[in-house]
Write a structure and sequence with these properties.
The structure holds two protein chains of two kinds. By secondary structure, chain A is an alpha/beta fold. Chain A has a single domain (7-223), classed as Spore Coat Polysaccharide Biosynthesis Protein SpsA, Chain A (Alpha-Beta Complex). Helix content of chain A is 44%, strand content 19%. A seven-stranded mixed beta sheet of chain A has the order 3-2-1-4-6-5-7, with helices on both faces. In chain A, strand 1 (7-13), helix 1 and strand 2 form a beta-alpha-beta unit. Chain B is mostly helical. Chain B has one domain (2-129). The chains are: A alpha/beta, B mainly alpha. Chains A and B meet through strand 2, strand 3 and helix 3 of A and helix 4 and helix 5 of B.
């Protein structure tokens, strides 16, 4: 990876029309190329993102965030991206954190740089959600052996080589654990860097619940039963 | 005797089915195979089923068979679920191809759009799949 390679930001979005253009515009002002994967939204997400200056890849129907991220990675690789960043559409990530991750890739010669809200800050994180995230992290550490502090953070940076080893098969939210198991399996170097998550009423309403956590566990269990 | 023959044929069918499923899901195949073989055995040895039922604390052999049947149904259900998941993966791959083929490049880059971008995406797909 060259020192001046332009990061390509991949944004999975499902019914995010009210917020996606602001995120894309902000990324554009910071000089990043952005690709929004519209995951079968029923609202104007795709048009809003395109008008704001992003490339748009639209799933013909809703497949889930894991599928959308994989599509975005495939697209970015096809565009020749040397560095790929995944970023949430709901505005909970800070554009200024991206450079911290991409610099970590260079400085640490790593292929994955993962954002962690527990190394950084998460103002307004509700206690129940914090407990749920802690539990998910403990579970993932146990199953993958990676010593990470935040397994469910959507802000990640990776090199082209790293991205090519990722093949998400969990379409729904269980992909967060899948990332880590595939990073572990790739044997490539990874680092964690603190990032800030801004919890707004909007992002909290769209976030994960206890019920989702149970579904995620079922998904992961089913995954082990067949090839 | 007729009932025993009919049941034997059906259970033998399940054994063959389990065998054919082995490559896809060994767990499901082995469980199905075990239960169908036990069924086959008890169809011809009903007394043994009663003895076994009494040994494990179930009143009659018929009840034991009923419970086994329930287990078998659940395993078939699990197998169907796994099959649906496999199908979902195929559908996802198909939808992804379509999405990438119809991708809208960012506005500033529209002029230098390359028609080969979809083929590049396919190549990347094939490349990363081999890992």
């Amino acid at each position: 990876m060259g020192p001046r390679s332009q990061p390509y930001v991949v944004i999975p979005a499902y019914n995010e029309a009210p917020v996606v253009s602001r995120v894309v515009a902000e990324l554009g002002r910071a000089g990043y190329a952005a690709a929004v994967v519209d995951d079968g939204s029923r609202d104007a997400t795709a048009d809003a993102a395109h008008a704001a200056g992003a490339a748009v890849v639209s799933h013909p129907f809703n497949l889930g965030q894991g599928a959308a991220l994989q599509t975005g990675i495939d697209y970015a690789l096809a565009q020749g991206a040397e560095v790929i960043v995944t970023f949430d559409a709901d505005g909970q990530h800070r554009v200024s954190d991206i450079s911290r991750l991409t610099e970590a890739l260079l400085q640490e010669r790593a292929h994955f740089a993962l954002g962690s809200r527990f190394l950084g800050q998460a103002p307004n994180l509700p206690p129940l959600r914090r407990a749920l995230l802690r539990a998910a992290t403990a579970f993932t550490r146990l199953t993958t052996g990676l010593q990470v502090t935040d397994t469910h953070n959507g802000l990640r940076a990776m090199t082209r080589r790293g991205a090519a080893t990722i093949r998400l098969r969990q379409n729904r939210m269980a992909h967060a654990s899948e990332w880590l198991s595939q990073i572990a399996a790739s044997g490539l170097r990874y680092v964690e860097r603190p990032v800030t998550i801004d919890y707004t009423a909007y992002s909290l309403a769209k976030g994960q619940s206890i019920g989702d956590a149970i579904l995620i566990l079922l998904d992961l269990f089913a995954r082990r039963l067949y090839r | 005797m007729i009932a025993q023959f009919i049941l034997s044929i059906l259970l033998a069918g399940i054994v063959v089915y389990a065998w054919s499923e082995y490559a896809r899901s060994p767990v499901v195949a082995v469980l199905t195979l075990l239960i169908a073989s036990a069924g086959l055995y008890f169809v011809w040895m009903p007394d043994h089923s009663t003895q076994l039922a009494e040994a494990v604390g179930i009143g009659r052999g018929v009840d034991l068979i009923l419970y086994i049947w329930v287990c078998l149904s659940l395993i078939v259900l699990l197998n169907l679920h796994l099959k649906l998941r496999t199908q979902m993966e195929l559908i996802t791959a198909l939808a992804r191809k379509i999405a990438l083929a119809d991708a809208r490049p960012a506005r500033a880059q529209t002029e230098r759009r390359t028609p080969s971008s979809t083929f590049a995406a396919t190549a990347v797909d094939a490349e990363s799949r081999s890992i």
